[in-house]
Amino acid sequence: MTKRRILVTGATGYIGGRLVPRLLDRGHEVVCLARSRRKLAARDWAGREGVVCFQGDVGEAAALTEALAGVEVAYYLVHSMILAGAEYAARDRELAEGFGRAAAAAGVRRIVYLGGLGEAGDDLSEHLRSRRDVEEALGAGGVPVTAFRAAMIIGSGSVSFEILRYLVERLPVMVTPRWIDTECQPIGVADVLRYLVACLEVPGTIGRRLDIGGRDVLTYRKLMDAMASVRGLRRRLVLRVPVLTPRLSSLWIHLVTPIGHRIARPLAEGLRNRVVCRNDDAVRLMPGARLSAREAIEVARGRLESDEVETSWSDAGVVPGDPDWAGGKLFVDAREIAIAASREEVFRAVCRVGGGHGWYAGDILWRIRGAMDRLVGGPGLRRGRRHHEHIRYGDALDFWRVTDVERDRRLELRAEMRLPGVATLSFDLEDDDALPGACRLRQTARFQPKGLFGLAYWYAVLPLHGFVFRGMLRGIRRAAED
16 in helix, strand or coil? Predict the structure, then answer.
């Protein structure tokens, strides 16, 4: 096997975060480009030999030139759909063209891209058409492109798996549009990663468009039946109606699942297209066992239940730094408590907040706030968390994002719920000099309001802080001392 210097863009995303360690296992040197160096450093593989990390955006010429130096193969795993809203298609094409030219200038021999399946034609959704446009744009500089086209990717933490799981678990009766009977060929994330790695050793894949899918072709209705069966649930009753537009479907997905409407809408539009492999070139060039849809669901569920989720769809997106509080009104709610436990024990208790564990106090209030957030287009509480106890920089915790974490010393969360302002919640730990073996935990909620509505919001929720935040501190103390 030839050792190569390989660039992976989107290394902190769902596929990129899983691809990097597999390339390292094959002995390659992997260059990672991401917007946040701290987010890269939080990955389990960041400290491994052979990893080179660069901070920057694929749209920044200087960062791209530096990252591409000496690279033989570049994986393009960037998607701006989450960030750019309705402008994502134009933005994606612009970024891909720039990347293709920069790769050519750097002497890159091949670009590998993961796009979407879908039969070409006037009826192709904007989302899938954008994936094809990116394929073409990446070759703008003349570098051969290996483009893998996949339909629904099923894996622990994937968008498709989460949508499917929540719909089936929460809705014994579903009202669906006509796409419920559209055929698809889902693929397990393990098979996607196998193809992405294997193509490096197969010259016949260079410059090819390769359809990849799992073992079986089935309708979305049958896929839901498979999920229900794996979960031990009765078959869901499905009622087809002709009036559910992609917009209404995306809003429904937003309300029922953790996926926001901005991501859900282009995905819902794509569901009307039949997404089935049109040839077996990938299987012929890179033979190997493939998972069925049911097997992929079983593997994903097993990893979810055993806390072995490597990456999650919620990993994607910008992680803001500390907000600039200068020049504006800042409200602070600071509380402190002494705990008869070590900093290590207290920090472990702090890091269990959110997800299925809850928030130690006032969980009904948190759930109400999450439901209200979903109604106005926010993430709500359903994003949960990647791992039940471990936290890393950039992780999502319900409607919060981890923006600072220092083991046994500090955790900071920034609110991503819909708010008339900017809110953070931080936990700082220090040893208690007056009591050996104990520590003090300081909890600080900060809010910078925007306009009069922001001021009104702060004063409206202020009476609840005593119950929620004081109760949280006491709950953390109980958990740490126990």
Answer: helix
Please state the separation of Cα 66 from the chain's center in Å. Answer: 26
Does 119 score more than 80 pLDDT?
no
By percentage, how much of the chain surpasses pLDDT 70?
86
Asked whether 418 and 356 are in contact (CB, 8 A), the reply is no
pLDDT category, 250, cuts 50, 70, 90?
A: low
Between 321 and 166, the more confident residue is 166
Q: Is the pLDDT of residue 327 over 50?
A: no
Name residues whose C-beta falls within 8 Å of residue 135's C-beta, 6 or more positions apart in sequence.
113, 115, 145, 147, 209
Parallel, antiparallel or unpaired: strands 51-55 and 29-34: parallel
Do the Cβ atoms of 162 and 297 come closer than 8 Å? no
Q: Is the distance from CB of 46 to CB of 67 less than 8 angstroms?
A: no
d(CA 151, CA 267): 11
Question: How many angstroms separate the CA atoms of 384 and 307, rounded?
Answer: 13
Q: What is the DSSP string of 47-109?
A: TSTTEEEEE--TT-HHHHHHHHTT-SEEEE----HHHHGGGHHHHHHHHHHHHHHHHHHTT--
Residue 323 has pLDDT above 50, yes or no: no
Is residue 221 within 8 Å of 50, Cβ to Cβ? Answer: no
Which pLDDT score, from 0 to 100, does residue 325 have? 33
| Statement: residue 193 has pLDDT above 90 | yes
d(CA 50, CA 457): 49
> For residue 252, what are its two tokens?
């429904």
Structure tokens at 69: 């130096």
Share of residues in the chain with pLDDT > 90 (%): 39
Task: Give the whole-angstrom CA distance, residue 476 versus residue 115.
Answer: 44
Half-sphere exposure of 417 (CA within 13 A, CB side): 25
Helix (H) or strand (E) holding 436: none
Which amino acid type is present at position 136?
Answer: E
Nearest 5°: the CA angle 218, 222, 223 is 85
CA neighbor of 17 nearest in space, from 299, 311, 253: 311
Nearest to 72 by CA among 3, 129, 158, 161: 3
Q: Is 86 exposed, middle or buried (0-12, 13-18, 19+ CB in 10 A)?
A: exposed
Among 178, 166, 220, smallest CA distance to 380 is for 166
Q: Which H or E run contains 192?
A: helix 189-198
- CA 185 remoteness from chain centre: 22
Average pLDDT taken over every residue of the chain: 84
Task: Tell me which of 4-18, 68-82, 167-181, 333-347 is least confident.
Answer: 167-181
Q: What value does the CA radius of gyration of the chain take, rounded to a whole number of Å?
A: 23
* Residue-level pLDDT at 421: 87
Give the number of other CB atoms < 10 A from CB of residue 245.
12
